[in-house]
Amino acid sequence: MKSKSLIISILFVIASFVANAQSHNEQVTVEGSYRPQIKRSERLLKTPQAPDNEFDIPNYKAGVRDFDYGYNMEVETMSAMSYKAEYGVEGKNNFLKAALGTRLSPVFLFRHYSDVSRNMSLGVGVRHYSSWLDMKDYKKSSFMNNNFSVMTVNKFRGGQLRPFIDYKYDMYHLRAYEGENTDGRNIHSINAGAKWLSSGSSYRNLYTEFGGDYRATWIPDGITEHQLNGTAHMAYSDDWIFNESVNKLQTIAADIDVNYDNVYQGQLIIALNPYFTMSGDFYNIHAGVRLDLKTGDDAGVYPDVSGSIFVLDNALEFYAKFGGRSAINTFADIVAENPFVT
User: Fold this and answer.
1) Burial class of residue 313 (count of CB atoms within 10 Å of its CB; 0-12, 13-18, 19+)
2) Distance CA 253, CA 208 (A)
3) Quick check: is 307 in a domain?
């Protein structure tokens, strides 16, 4: 009996030693292009994870049906315990792409995203695309497109502010005739603006968004276009009709758009679009009207109706839409479609 107890005791000691060996001195290596630099003593404060390779500014807007979706701006991205300042903010995301197209067209794309602080994120993008052979559909031609953009997301207690600036420089050369000497066409475009999105959602609460931007497009010694755009969105949701499920909500909303263009004799369009939406387990209904007020022209009234039905456990959707709107055919849109237009 004593020998049996001794054997059992020895087995317990061996098992404890094996368990202790497995629970300590275990090293984990994260392989990849991103290797977090965190000291062993601080691994309890933050868990390193390799980020996805995509450029995506976080959008904290809550959908009108997802009433229970929200975010708390006071939540920290790391432990409330002390963290060494020498490491700074760890949230980073970089994407780089370089390629060569079938028409010997080099492509370069770089995108960077980082959390500058707990309440501010930064996004930077650079793009280059050009041709070493003739452009498609244009004989004896070449082009080079360049784009640089910067955007930040600034979080506040009541919402977030998203300012941005985007600059484009495109060069096109069309040598349609032998011996023709041309410097080509250089098109510049700059777009700057900001958008405010309130926090929370529209469920039993007035949700608002406001935005505005300025855009200039010009050709040296040629046309210069100035555009001013403004947007506003308001929505309020509740379960007035069914009162059965929180997923069956109805929403009353309105969108306001203001567009000004100086090229076409100072064309101005003010659009008001009130609408009503309701959703269920197998359907989605949108019913509204759009009123466009245009300078030098009659007002336009357009329907804004759409709906969808889901069948086969939401695997198949039948969708229909009927509507219209007034829009300014801007110079920037025209040269984007045909850069050689005169």
Assistant:
1) exposed
2) 10
3) yes
DSSP letter for 41, please.
Answer: G
Residue 73 structural domain: 49-337
Q: Where residue 122 sits, what CATH number does that domain have?
A: 2.40.170.20
Contacts 24+ apart (CB under 8 A), 335-338: 335/187, 335/217, 335/219
Helix (H) or strand (E) holding 32, with range, is: none
Please count the structural domains in the chain. Answer: 1
Could you report the per-residue pLDDT of 53-70, keeping only the tens digit for each?
A: 444 444 434 333 333 333
The span from the CA of 281 to the CA of 284, in Å, is: 9
Cβ proximity of 235 and 203 under 8 Å: no
The answer to whether residue 28 sits within a structural domain is: no
Please tell me the distance from the alpha carbon of residue 204 to that of residue 249, in angstroms, as a whole number.
Answer: 10
Listed in order, strand segments (DSSP E) in 74-163 are 92-100, 106-117, 120-130, 141-155, 159-161
* Residue closest to 120 by CA, chosen among 36, 211, 61, 58: 58
pLDDT digits (tens, 9 = 90+) for 239-296: 888 765 556 789 999 999 999 999 877 889 999 999 999 988 888 999 999 999 988 7
Q: What is the DSSP letter of 309?
A: E
